[in-house]
Amino acid sequence: MIKNDMPTDGLVKQGTPRACFVCRKNLETVHIGDTNTDMPSGGTTWHTTGNYGSAVYDPMPGFGARPRALDILICDRCLEERKDLVLERTTRTKTVHSYKTWDPKTSD
Q1: Residues 106, 51: contact at Cβ < 8 Å?
Q2: How many alpha carbons lie under 13 Å from residue 64 in its C-beta half-sphere?
């Protein structure tokens, strides 16, 4: 098990290896040419903007807070070993249009 080498000042530079949330194995970042990405090699990135039911993390961005999210990595091995706990979600969005009379003098 490799310890997570996160900086103590809270700022993480792009390309910094981060650890799997489950097993704490360090995951290197994917390199595309000379560029580091924030994508882990051999794992996936997971984000949450919080939940109403959480007593730990719910920043409520609709109430004036800056938009933010928690970001964790899960290595492929841990994800596959726990596949019985994973749900895959498909999101279908419905486009809703609103209409008003057009006035070329006041159009944006």
Answers
A1: no
A2: 0
For residues 84 and 78, give the distance between their C-alpha atoms in angstroms, rounded to a whole number: 11
Mean pLDDT value of segment 68-86: 91
Three-state SS annotation for 24-74: CCEECEEEECCEEEEEECCEEEEEECCCCCCCCCCCCHHHCCCCCCEEEEE
2 pLDDT above the threshold of 50: no
**What gap in Å lies between CA 23 and CA 31, rounded to an integer?**
23
Is residue 52 a contact partner of residue 58, using CB atoms and an 8 Å limit?
A: yes
The pLDDT value recorded for residue 30 is: 83
CB proximity list for 79: less than 8 A, separation 6 or greater: 43, 44, 86
Q: What is the pLDDT of residues 12-47, one digit of tens each?
A: 776 677 899 999 999 988 877 666 567 889 999 998
Residue 77 tokens, joined = 């091995």
